[in-house]
Every structure is written in structure tokens, then in C-alpha cells.
Amino acid sequence: MNGSAVEHIPVLANTLAEQISLPPDAVMVDATIGQGGHSLLFGQSLNTKGILIGLDIDKTSLSKADDKLKNLVCKVILLNSNFTKIGRALQKQGIEKVDFILADLGVSSAQLTDYDKGLSFLTDMPLDMRIDKRIKTTAADIVNKADENALADLIYKYGQDRASRRIARFLVQHRRTEPIKTTGQLASIVCRALGRPGRKSRIHPATRTFQALRIAVNKELDNLEKLLVSAPTLLKKKGRIAVISFHSLEDRLVKNNFKLNEKENIYRIITKKPIVPSRREIQQNRRARSAKLRIAQKK
Known about the structure:
By secondary structure, the chain is of the alpha/beta class. It has helices at 13-19, 37-43, 59-69, 86-92, 109-112, 139-145, 148-159, 164-175, 183-194, 207-218, 220-234, 248-263, 279-284, and strands at 27-30, 51-56, 75-80, 98-104, 235-245, 267-269, 292-298. It has a 7-stranded mixed beta sheet with strand order 3-2-1-4-5-7-6, sandwiched between helices.
């Protein structure tokens, strides 16, 4: 069960295409290329002088993107790299400035169903949560080794769950008798802590705890901050950055960064309010429901 055949549907793809018009010889960076859905859309508008650079920490996703983009006429460069290293990655390719940076921060459907990644609370998997296997600390390491206060703080900070102290207490009580090794165990403990069965709630009770652990393991907010800080130095004049976020912590970082750069006369904010998916898109792709798109342009 290594990997998954699940097809990832790119979120807000048509909306992005309406908002971003690239010249045929543009240089674009898809900082989270995933399976290449968004990149295919933009890559089709590029000619032989255009360059598409795709970064991803997930080798399986990169392989799928490579297959999806193989017929594009533009130059395609795929790199197994975290987007925090975007500047260095471009420098190595001899590229100083780009026309467009795109970051879709969502976890793909394929990743959620990948047994080896251990991200799902609906299927019992080893409790891992590392998107990039080069990371040393797993979610199991955190829930079994962190003290109760640290666990509660983590769940509250990254999961925004008001019951974080109770959840942490239940986790610590459980691990005294046996280690928490699987996603099924973790989900069950959280459900007991909250007194709610998993499948009867509109949102699974373990959602926030799983989100918190995934963010912590993969250092998602720290990485996003680094991308946002480096973007202005990499964009050409009138170049654009578009970020699709999936929870309020990410969206707040993007919003505040764009506002700061606008105040300092570096950016012009294109989206005064975030663009969200239509009801039809959410019906077709339920994972799109929490997506928010923000776009800024370099002055």
C-alpha cells in the first residue's frame, strides 16, 4: 500500500486562470506542484521560451506531475525541494526573477489516503504525518514523548481546539499503558476525550488534533512564513504571487504579509477579500470547502 491511485482535483483552478494571465514566455514557480493540476493549466499557455519550475517535498507527487506535464512545450523543471529553498533552487537554475509564484497549501487527496504518510483519521495507518520522509520527528514521537502541557499547547495553537487540555490529558493517560502508534488509536482517543463518535459529527472530532500534529511535524507555518518573506525579492516588476490556504492560521499569515508589503509599497493587493470556491466547486470537490485564494502583485 505504498502510495495511492487517488486523483487530486486542483482547487480554484478556473478562478486562478481568470485572475492570472501569463505572457507566453513567462517564468513561473509552482511552489507546491503536487500532481501538477494547476501547473498544467498555466503551462499550456506558455511557449518554448516559457519556463515552469515545480517544487514539492513529496517524491510520489513529483513523479505524477512529471507524467502530467510531459507534453508541454515550455521547459519544465521539477525539483524535490521544500519551498523554503525557493531562492536557492532558482539560483541553481540561473533564474533571478519570475513572473508568477503559486502556492497551494492543501494536502492532496492522494496524500490523505497514502498508508505510508499516516495522515488519515478515517483509515487506520501508522501514525507518521511526515509529507517529507527526510524529517526525523513523526506525529507518534510527539504524542508519545511530549509532556501534557506541551501537547495541549500544540493542539490549541495549531488546531485551535478549545478542548486541547482534555485531549492532551486523555493522550497522556493512554500512553501510560500502551504507546499510540496508529491514526486509528489517536482518532479513537480524541473521540473519547470529546465524548463524540467520529462518523456522526459533521466534522470529525479528531480533525483539529490531526491538523495540529501535521502542522507541527511538517513545520508548515514556519515554512509558509519563509516563502512569503522571500517572494518579493524573486518576483519581477508586476509579477504576481497567489496563495491558496485551507485554514485560518495560514490565511492570516498570507493576509498580514500582503498588507505589510502593500504598506511598504512593495505589493498591490489584487484580492481585497479572499476568493473562495463556488457552491458548485464544493459540491464537486468537498475538500475545496475551506480554500481561500489571495493574490498580490509586485509594484
